[in-house]
Specification:
Shape of chain A: globular
Number of strands of chain A: 11
Number of strands of chain B: 11
Distance between the termini of chain B: 40 Å
Structural class of chain A: mainly beta
Strand content of chain B: over 45%
Number of helices of chain B: 0
Number of helices of chain A: 0
Shape of chain B: globular
Radius of gyration of chain B: 13 Å
Helix content of chain B: under 10%
Largest sheet of chain A: 7 strands, mixed
Order of helices and strands of chain A: EEEEEEEEEEE
Radius of gyration of chain A: 13 Å
Helix content of chain A: under 10%
Strand content of chain A: over 45%
Oligomer: heterodimer
Distance between the termini of chain A: 36 Å
């Protein structure tokens, strides 16, 4: 079975440019999470969706960040305009919204570098 | 705000030694997971504990969930270089879908 698929794996962009990160969750999963990981702050939850609906976006750092989930098999995280401090590894994860099986399965991440 | 504190932050030991990693919170969680992350990869789930006092074993790894479901520990017996990685605990809040992560314990096992 294919796991969570993220693209691109690496992205280098100039400050001020728009960046779009993509995620395909595991088929059948109905919860999707976007995380950001840095050495200083660890793994931070940015936003999560349940049945394609954003449930909690309190972790989104600024209005420059937006996330969408137009259908059950695709989600995007957009940063516009990007800044050097946005440099991090961004992970997408998916799971079943079932309290008995709460495990999240992670993609390999997108390493973003804003110069 | 629910927080998970992990200790130690960094651990460097010799092959064959035992170690314990702790995950503590002032909040109650409906479940707690332990993940391991290797460089360039996403976290991979090791175990989920759900019941207060629960103990689970995975080969040389022993996981325990505190009676009050606020803390957990991971004990590794006879550590091997292949155990090297970042160990993350993650808690799921009661009545919801949100999972939060601790900052992690970076383990290095020397041959």
């Amino acid at each position: 079975d294919a796991g969570v698929i993220q693209s691109p794996r690496h992205e280098v962009t100039e400050m001020g440019q728009e960046v779009t990160l993509r995620c395909k969750p595991i088929s059948g999963h109905n919860s999707l999470f976007w995380y950001r990981q840095t050495m200083m702050r660890g793994l931070e939850l940015l936003i999560y969706f349940n049945n394609n609906v954003p449930i909690d976006d309190s972790g989104m750092p600024e209005d420059r960040f937006s996330a969408k989930m137009p259908n059950a098999s695709f989600s995007t995280l957009k940063i516009q305009p990007s800044e050097p401090r946005d440099s991090a590894v961004y992970f997408c994860a998916s799971s079943f919204a079932d309290r008995r099986v709460p495990e999240a399965f992670f993609g390999q991440g997108t390493r973003l570098t804003v110069v | 705000t629910q927080l998970l504190e992990q200790s130690p932050q960094f651990l460097s030991i010799q092959e064959g030694e035992n170690l314990t990693v702790y995950c503590n919170s002032s909040s109650v969680f409906s479940s707690l997971q332990w993940y391991r992350q290797e460089p360039g990869e996403g976290p991979v789930l090791l175990v989920t504990v759900v019941t207060g006092g629960e103990v689970k074993k995975l080969k040389r790894l022993t996981f325990q969930f505190g009676d009050a479901r606020k803390d957990s520990s991971l004990h590794i017996t006879a550590a091997q270089p292949g155990d090297t990685g970042l160990y993350l605990c993650a808690g799921r809040n009661t009545g919801g879908f949100k999972t939060i992560f601790g900052a992690g314990t970076r383990l290095f096992v020397k041959a």
